[in-house]
Amino acid sequence: MAKREFKYIGHSVARVDGVEKVTGKAKFVGDLAIPGMLHGKILRSTYPHARIRSIDATQAEALPGVVAVLTAADINDLNPIYNGRPVIAMNKVRYVGEPVAAVAALDLATADEALDLIQVDYEELPAVVGIDSAIKKDAPLIHAEKGGNIGTHEKVERGSVDEGFAQSDVIVEDIFTFPMVYHYAMEPHSVIAHYDDTGEITVWSSAQHPFQARGDIAKVFKVPTAKVRMIINYLGGGYGSKSYTKFEPLVVALARKAKQPVRICNSVGESMVTVRRHGARVRVKTGVKNDGTILAREAEIYLDTGGYDDNGPQVTARSATRVIGPYWIPNIRTNAYQVYTNTGSAGSYRAIGAPQVIYAGESQIEMAAAKIGMDPAELRMKNLLKKGQELRPGLKGIDANLNSSLKRLVRASTWKKSIRKKSAAIGMGCAVTNAGATPVSVAMIRMQSDGIANVAAGSTEMGQGVRTTLTQIAAEELTLPMDQFRILGADTKVTPYDSSTGSSRSTTLMGTAVQKAARDLKQQFIKIAAQTMAAKPSKIRVADGALICGEARMTFKEAFERRFGKGSGGEMIGRGEAGPEITGNQLPVFWEVGMGASEVEIDRETGEVKLKKFISVADVGKAIHPDHCVAQEEGAAMQGIGHTFFEQLIYENGQLINPNLVDYRIPTFSDVPEEFHTELVENGDGPGPFGVRGMAEGGILSVAPSVCNAIDRATGVRIKDLPLTPERVWRALRDSQK
């Protein structure tokens, strides 16, 4: 069968939003000016744990230019809790930075001044910071009604780990720790809200999940979802930090009281306490035979979720699965616990719950390989899951060829040649993640008589290039030039439903919906042509925006005229949806594959470790836009470099002491590896359009374990705590010599 040739799919076409962005025409929430808009600021708790005795906003309300001050007293008529957190602190604060009051004023300077005039009387309570402190038997309770500081508990079990360990020749057991880290999207969280006289709520937000935020706002304010309109323009990055609902309900409540639109834009420091990645403590125990067969794995995972749930329950559930790794292990027992602490809440961050546990599990794979004297790549190859095999009970079997990806990594990284060198500073990491989230996406394509096609899709453009990718899919199906398509951000009043933008789902699920919408529209044109040409629809082919049957040819424009009459305009609409049937009603939607190999250079005098080479492999099924795929994979790897080498949010006595980009270091160009390369695997076996498989999270997963494995191979020193600051590495090297 001849290989299909594509005009747009598989080509790195120009971004459809590129000109808008480089010329500054692209509008973010901070750029919008809504008529009558006020400027808002949030007063945040200075205590990690305290009871609020009273709040006096009298002086602030009397300040000229102040229109409204919001406190908990203003939300008594609402359902004030969403995602486990209150709209604004009620009776108690549970972390430094929690919103206690909010001001709407004519300008930011007045709003800032008003914050200083609000008097809050606190009764300080004992603070619990860190996992160890929170799980102590007599630890102060952060949520008294829960009876403890453990929230969600997820357990995965198969076989008998006790029997598996009894049959193992080698058992390795270790505890690893992973830091709290901040996403640092370039645009901090921003929201504009308007609550009009009829009870209609309009929100302009930097939300990744506009339809989920709409649902939360409707529940909080006790209105039908039809009364809530979310409008999303561009996002300046997300990485999960803008998933779910953040402080949109607070801004709506403030706008309701002010009776005018209000905008609140976080600073970087404020966003740092709005959401972060979960810190973790992971105990892993793995049993193997001398021939490299993995027989058992046990894991105990504690995730620091901060003061409130946010997406912590889902993160916890995913971690209990993802710690198993991409291997067939007959005996597994994993327990994951969500732990409340008096710190800013943790939520979604690229590959939720995975970097923490894959760092631990993949470090241990190489430790076990060293103990039995086996090449760690061979040990992995021996145990990789085969297509259809079940990673954990209840989930869809593996749908990717893991063997081919690992072979690609071994070849691209020159692993076999490098490993022959004694003490070669090389390491590897492999992972799969259950991706795709909820499989519900709907799209429409509305074509006008002038040939312009408007794609209505709820996926949020936050830099990943989804508008371009969806346009490529539509253009390929309809055989029209890409410049005839228009695609905007979500507006829940007119845009069809999409469950979320995250979990690597957009190209696979929304891409499927757009492809189906394009095919629906195409069939409508074929029907018109078949009637006109007196031919069977199966005999009509579509090429270059025309309908062809033998020698007869009809353009889309002529088909419009045939249906609606000359000069009468008209509109044709194609509709498509992706639902649970895309995967046979089984989750996950697909398994995302992330593999990588590192080579490092270690300065034993200073402890500085430099990543010289990083090779990653991403199984994308089909690369719709190859350059975007590589950029996503390498962008993810750079975030992995951050939490591996230096990123960490540091709390002392409940206070975040590095809430800015001076004290909190993120990767820069000087941290880019000298050799930085991504291999794209295209087997065409994904569930999405043209065989695509979602990607963009896998690249973050293998950096930390592969770097730590490289350090161990070169020095014999195993470091089990991140980040790898020079001091930590230097101390580990020094202690190993004692």
List the helices and strands and how they pair.
Blueprint (H helix, E strand, L loop, with lengths): L17 H5 L15 E7 L5 E7 L1 H5 L3 E5 L10 E2 L2 E2 L5 E2 L5 E7 L2 H10 L1 E6 L6 H4 L15 E9 L2 H7 L2 E9 L11 E6 L5 E5 L4 H12 L6 E4 L16 H11 L3 E4 L2 H5 L6 E10 L5 E13 L5 H11 L8 E10 L13 H19 L3 H8 L18 H11 L2 H5 L6 E10 L5 E8 L4 E5 L8 H13 L6 E3 L18 H28 L7 E3 L2 E4 L2 E4 H9 L6 E8 L11 E13 L6 E11 L6 H20 L5 E2 L2 E2 L18 E7 L21 H13 L10 H12 L1
Parallel strand pairs: 1-14, 12-13, 16-17, 20-21, 27-30
Antiparallel strand pairs: 1-7, 2-6, 2-8, 3-7, 4-5, 9-17, 10-15, 11-12, 11-14, 15-16, 18-26, 19-20, 19-25, 22-23, 23-24, 26-27, 28-29
Helix pairs in contact: 9-10, 10-18, 14-15, 15-16
Your description of this structure?
The chain has 738 residues and is an alpha+beta fold. It is built from 19 helices and 30 strands. A hairpin with a 2-residue loop joins strand 28 and strand 29. It is globular, with a radius of gyration of 27 Å. The termini are far apart. The mean pLDDT is 96.
Would you kindly provide a brief summary of this structure?
By secondary structure, the chain is α+β, with helices and mostly antiparallel strands.
Keywords:
738 residues; alpha+beta; seven-stranded mixed β-sheet; globular
Give the proportion of residues in helices. Answer: 25-40%
Strand percentage: 25-35%
Largest sheet: 7 strands, mixed
Termini separation comes to 66 Å
Mean pLDDT: 96
Note the total helix count: 19
What structural class do the secondary elements suggest? alpha+beta
Gyration radius from CA atoms, angstroms: 27 Å
Side-by-side strand order of the widest sheet: 3-7-1-14-11-12-13
Ranges where pLDDT stays below 50 over 5 or more residues in a row are none
Please state the overall shape, judged from the principal axes of the Cα atoms: globular
Tell how many strands the DSSP assignment holds: 30
